[in-house]
Amino acid sequence: MGFSHSKPGILGHLILALAWLAFLAIANHQAARPVLSIFPYMVPVVFFAWVHGAKWGFFFAGLSALAALPADYIATHSKEDLLYAGFATYIQLSAAVIGCAAARMIREKAGRS
Asked: Which residues of the chain register pLDDT less than 70?
């Protein structure tokens, strides 16, 4: 399934996931100590990868990587540091997508046997 062939109910899922990421991004920009753990950002990534497919998971991995950058990090680090941090976060979240896709395939294959 791709972006054009979406499951019913995806609009509500999109709104909730985007609200979650917006909350995390605002928290990162407002708080003295930003959320540095990868797990809060992984919630919408894993959900979309499991329910709506890997393409949606990779899309939310990108959005989550952007939401994970704290405001003070942008102001105090070079462009290379920002690219490295964003890419490293995206790779970690993409690994979760790949793991979810593999688990989903194994589950579906076991269900057909």
From this structure: 1-8, 71-72, 112-113
Label residue 53 left, alpha or beta by phi (over 0 means left) and psi (-120 to 50 means alpha).
Answer: left
C-alpha–C-alpha distance, residues 83 and 102, integer Å = 28
Structure confidence at residue 72 (pLDDT) = 65
Cα(91)–Cα(26) distance, rounded to whole angstroms? 23
Secondary structure of the chain: what % helix, strand, coil (to 5)?
A: 80, 0, 20
Query: Which strand (E) or helix (H) includes residue 52?
Result: none
Q: Residue 8's pLDDT is what?
A: 67
pTM of the model: 0.82
Give exposure, 55-66, as e/b (b: 16+ Cβ within 10 Å): ebbbbbbebbbe
Q: How far is CA 61 from CA 17, 46, 66, 94, in A?
A: 11, 9, 9, 6
| Alpha carbon distance 50, 33 (integer Å) | 31
